[in-house]
Write a structure and sequence with these properties.
Keywords: Hydrolase, Magnesium, Manganese, Metal-binding, NAD. This protein has 307 residues and is of the alpha+beta class. The protein contains seven helices and 16 strands.
């Protein structure tokens, strides 16, 4: 059985113009600062949101020019540049707006397309800068360049770019009406999701899928098919989604200690669990599934609808 994603994962939506040409045009970046919008991201990767839109302040209220630790995110529909900084959140001065604190992991459904893209990029870049202040080559201090999209060793000129950690995530099914869902050892009872793991050096995505599933639950899979991808800036991952066929008669073996239990669920059982909501549900169902912000949810929903 083959299927496709029924919708674009929440954090993969296309919103603002990334305007990559501005990153290397210092004059253009500085010139746009006076009218630019500013996204504040606090130490917990939270932002202010109102009516589905991320609250953007005025960059010029922060400084006369881009601070060295600000990152350029692109242009929004009115043509303004958008920058982001790590800073305490500020409430809106508009009395007609009811704003709330939100983050992508727990409240991704609150964000529109533009907000989801801006916050995903801001979190990924600012998290990277926080851990990349010294060169990976010789340990020398580095400084931001390219409007926050790279760092440079000022002595040697060696440039480093944001690191992305690719990880696969896969729904294993029997080609019919059953799929494997698993619970990690650190998760509460009844919370299940798909199998996932980081790609190793010298490994393709498909090879990683086969290795991770065998390591985690002992199954040998075949017919590995790509579905889609999603940024996951917690702190800097890219989730690459697949589905694959496994044999329900093959016994589970929890080889690496990450998985506490796994089970084959029928499509009807998965549909019933999806109807109850997500992990935050107060249902007493024996199966609780991930929330809408995760590509895992989209993959599970797409498989459930395909039958």
């Amino acid at each position: 059985m083959d299927f496709e994603l029924h919708s674009v994962p929440l954090l993969s939506r296309i919103g603002a113009d990334r305007a990559d040409q501005v990153r290397t045009d210092t004059d253009a970046a500085v010139a746009g600062w006076g009218d630019a919008a500013l996204l504040r991201l606090d130490s917990r990767n939270q932002v202010m949101v109102a009516d589905g839109r991320v609250l953007l302040g005025k960059a010029k209220d922060l400084a006369d020019k881009p601070p060295h630790d600000a990152v350029f995110l692109g242009r929004i529909e009115d043509g303004r540049h958008v920058w982001a900084v790590r800073a305490p959140l500020e409430a809106s001065d508009d009395p007609d707006l009811t704003a709330e604190v939100a983050d992508l992991r727990r409240g991704g459904q609150l964000f529109d397309d533009v907000g989801a893209q801006l916050v995903s990029a801001a979190a990924a870049l600012l998290n990277w800068h926080a851990s990349a202040r010294f060169s990976s080559v010789d340990g020398s201090p580095t400084k931001p360049i390219r409007a926050g999209w790279a760092r440079v060793n000022p002595i040697t000129g060696h440039e480093e770019f944001p690191r992305i950690d690719p990880a696969v995530i896969c729904l294993v099914h029997d080609g019919g009406d059953r799929a494997v869902l698993a619970r990690q050892t650190v998760w509460p009872e009844r919370m299940y999701s798909l199998l996932a793991g980081f790609v190793e050096a010298g490994e393709s995505f498909e090879t990683c899928v086969a290795r991770e599933i065998h390591e985690e639950i002992g199954l040998t899979v075949r017919d590995i098919r790509y579905l889609g991808s999603q940024p996951w800036p917690f702190p800097r991952s890219l989730m690459v989604g697949f589905h694959a066929v496994g044999d329900p008669d093959e016994p589970f073996a929890f080889n690496d200690g990450e998985i506490a239990e796994a089970e084959w669920f029928t499509r009807d059982e998965v549909r019933a669990a999806l109807a109850l909501g997500d992990w935050s549900s107060d249902s007493d169902s024996r199966l609780l599934l991930p929330g809408s912000v995760s590509i895992a949810r989209v993959i599970i929903e797409s498989w459930a609808q395909a039958g």
